[in-house]
Amino acid sequence: MVKKTKDQGLVYDAFDLIKFAWDKKWILIGLSLIAFIASVIVSLLITPKFRSKVVMFPAASVSVSKNLVETAVITSDTKDILTFGEDEESERLLQILRSDQIKKHIIEKFNLLEHYEIDTASKYKNTFLYSKFEGNVSFRRTEFLSIEISVLDEDAQMAADIANGIVTYIDSVYFNIKKSRAQEAYAIVEREYNSSKVLIEQLTDSLNKIRSYGIHDYESMAEALNLAYGEAIASGNTRAIKAIENKMEVMSKYGGAYIELSDKLEWEIERFSLLKSKLAAAKVNLESTMTNVFVLDYANKSERKATPHRSMIVMVSTLTTFALALLLLLIIDNIKSRY
Q1: Measuring CA to CA, how many Å separate 11 from each of 25, 28, 144, 314, 336?
Q2: What is the mean pLDDT of the chain?
Q3: Which class for 318: exposed (0-12), middle (13-18), buried (19 or more C-beta within 10 A)?
Q4: Mean pLDDT across the stretch 63-91?
Q5: What is the pLDDT confidence band of residue 88, given thresholds at 50, 70 and 90?
Q6: How many whole angstroms separate alpha carbon 222 and alpha carbon 244?
Q7: Which backbone phi and psi does 143 adopt, to 5 degrees?
Q8: What is the structure's pLDDT at 285?
Q9: In what order do the strands lie in the sheet with 147-153?
Q10: Is there a contact between 54 and 148 (Cβ–Cβ < 8 Å)?
Q11: In this structure, is the dihedral angle defined by the CA atoms of residues 291, 292, 296 and 300, taken in order, positive or negative?
């Protein structure tokens, strides 16, 4: 090894480094061998885990009623119920998957507190439980806008069951989120529908009462009475004149109310028809159980372990130990050379 003076410092070229490593080969080999044996033992002690995956696409956010019931509102921009979701739907689905509602349901359904062997007496049991759950269960959006659910577990069947259980529960979460709002919407429309129905009955009763006085079509009757009244005057038929005047008096007394009630009834019938359609649509939205995801691949029991990669652990540990030992020896040699 080429050494320089204390002031000039110490310089190593590639050959010097190789020669130095050769000189210290037994130390390096010994430390690397120890690291190799230790890493083999440690890797054998690590419990293997199996991975199961589910791949799915979110469904497009559409109103079932608008696509299946309210034909009048369908336009060229209306999304079909079979359309895959886009960025917005993917992000929304990821948010739901990461919610506490999903975690709590899966933890309770598969009794993960016991399965993960969490100490139930610990005051931090929930912290440990959620930490382990989040370490074993992950969600990601792929480049194709699909969502991948990945579950690691020491039990291959449990990993598959958890992944599929999450997919099964997603629609329940969507349904619960939408149900309260759909119920409110249905109650509002139903209240207006019933109110309109009662009002129509009231208007119809009022008109029927006026019709009992002989008024059925005000405009045509008024025109006919005016014509008959003129003819009666022209002919000097006093008896007919008196009868027509009596009729016209009734028309004058109830005619305005008849017109007003007729217009209100016509408008209310149109409104009632619209409310009836909206009530049917609200009922469809309330009772809809259509899936919110398209599952491409369900999880299956894995036949091969996913972790640990024992060969990788041994190789990385051995090489890292060799590199660190060589660096430490160089530092020691550098210090000795300077002092």
Answers
A1: 21, 21, 53, 33, 14
A2: 79
A3: buried
A4: 59
A5: confident
A6: 11
A7: -70, -15
A8: 78
A9: 137-141, 147-153, 50-58, 293-297
A10: yes
A11: negative
